[in-house]
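Handoff note, outgoing to incoming analyst
You'll be picking up this chain. Sequence as last confirmed:
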Amino acid sequence: MMLGTLHALRRSEEGQTLVLAAIFGLVLMVCVLGTVNLGRAVYDKVQLQAAADSAAYSQAAVEARVMNFTAYTNRAMVVHYASMMAATSYLSYLHFEWPLLKAALDVLSKLPYIGPAAAAVEQVAKALVKFLDYAVQLLGYFIAAANIALYGFQEGAWWGLYFGRLSKSMPPEGHSGDSAAHPYVPIWPTLLPAANMAVFAQTRGHALMPMNSLETLKILLNDKSDVVQEARLHMLEVANSARQPWVAYGDGLSRASLWPSARHWNWPLLGKHLWLGARARTEMGGFAPRGGIGGLLNATGQVWSGQQVALGYDFTFIKHWHGSDNFFTFVAMDQVAPTVAPRKNSYFGGFAPSSLVGKALYLFFPPLKALNKAVQGYAQKTKPSPDYRFHWLSPYVYFSPRASNRASLASLGNFGQPDVLIGLALEGRDYNREGGAATQYGRRFSWGGGAAGKGATDFSYTNADWPKAPGVQVLHKGFNAFSAAQAYYHRPGDWKEQPNFFNPLWGARLMPVTESNVWAKLPFSNLPLFKQFLLH
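Most recent structure output, in case you need it:
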């Protein structure tokens, strides 16, 4: 009986599925756990990359805000300069018309009945002119002080970002996605901030911010360097372009008035061949640099405003004769010291014929001499007082004109647009330990099948699993993530405009890591396979 039972048991196939289930259950469990582990690894890497992207973008966005602030303050300076030119143009127009008004009032003051009224009007007009003279003088001081204060705010914003944020090894946004127990850590905490600071500073010309500030301050001294002179001329050009037509060219040549009290008027005497009229112009300029202590005498700026009555002609008789002769001229110059001929700020000029036409008029019309003498006498009595008005070209933060499209260790690429590079790592020890596991590795999985068997697997990483460039370990032993973002200049529409600090059109965007200016300044770019490791 017993032998028969054993013999039947040996021939029986019942229970073999249990053995196969135990074996394949273990394999299946390992596969399932491996899939879970891989999914968790992908999730952790995605979270790490998202944190790096967030940190890079936020840094670039702050840079863009600083540049837009710089543009707004530069535009405020331009408005101040345009206001100074407008005030000077009104002043020159007033003093140009005042001699004629005074002559009329002097005549009227000698007439009965209306004489006292004319004298009272003259006293009121003289007080008003005197008030405007002092008001324009004070305006020059206020504008100079306001623009220097704006420049101080600009430097404060640049230095605050330079030291207050870019110098930090870990931006606050870099901690999005981690935990206090297992935080993300910065990659190259000294090298990357230094490179980011250098690229940001280099948008102004130098990789060190103190050198930029020192060079910008040289605008006050009218330094002879090409960079300072170009910055001064750029501001002058932008400020002059902001003038109103009435300030720049009187009422505009295309719509000259017929009324002789206008700032620009024209009387056609013989059509287009002979005309009498007034013309005006106001603009801001600077002096050629001299260098040294003596250069301080011409370090100021200048607002030049002039107006004159002229006789113009254009005809052909044997040859082409064209030109003009000035009958009466008033010029006002706002500057801290009289450094331009005729060595005074405001002056009047009478009829000084230089052409044959003008000399003929002076010869055949003797009353012109008497009229000229009378007008000069009245003009000298109505000169601006005080005669000197203050004007100074303030320093301002300007965009470096020396940028190129190819990035290198010495110069910026991408047309000088700055960028930042952020590197974050999730250390292997933090990845191996799952959240909440306090005493054992969370990446170790085990399965006990009783009589069917048991097994265990460990998905935790070891030092042999980390990428390593030949002979150099430059990345963290864990997940590494890099992200680059750029502060870029873009004018909407079809405009193509060189980046500058006059239009607040700066924004932020992510960019390829290996195309950034910061990448070009790293010493690892030439290592074999390093680019592949950087992007892994």
